[in-house]
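Q: What changes when zinc ion is included in the input?
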Amino acid sequence: MSLEQALWREKNKERCKQRYNAWRTRNKARNETKELPTFKRCEKCGVLKVSDSFYRQSDSLDGLKNWCKTCWERYRKEYRSENRTALIEAKRKKYHEKIANGFCHSCSNRALEGRTRCSICTIAGLCRQAIGNGTKEQAKYLLGKLEEGENKCPYTGEVIELGKSAELDHIYPKLRFPERAREIENLEWVSSRANKAKLDMTKEEFIEFCRLVTTYTRSEE
Ligand SMILES: [Zn+2]
Ligand SMILES: [Zn+2]
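A: The predicted holo structure follows.
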């Protein structure tokens, strides 16, 4: 999505949503009633093929594209290799334009203050680092958890900020509990300082360790 599109979308958020939903309902109804032909001749290579060899196109008369999948793939591949430099340059330009205007570079939402990604994309990235995959849905779930905890570290009570001091910690450390390393439920928002100190301790062990430190240092005073 280009910068102009992102700006436009931000201004017309409600309208976009309505238009998209209307289009989806219309499209769905149309696709359900449309009967696909059994065979079709590709307009590019001229071969008669079964309809499975064609990509769908909801606004075409028979519901299929005019070129077969093989022809489409070949065309796409050729186009990409012929325009490689221009495509990379265009992508780069789009990326920098969006960042310069305060948009997330991977979607069309506003980026976090002073960062290059929005909250959801930032969390998705952290989630990927932590458990190996991070979808938008998972990011939304984790954002909910952060808000539930009132943006505070459960160990120190420090206010933690996305893109700054908020980190995802494995409650059961992944080195000692590899079977839980990829569970999203095993993740917890903590401050970066607490995360560094906790290392490969479990929640209970870490709290016990902190208690030991405070008791000992107090008795020394
Ligand atoms: Zn073809
Ligand atoms: Zn984003």
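Observations recorded in class: Residues 13-33 form the longest helix (21 residues).
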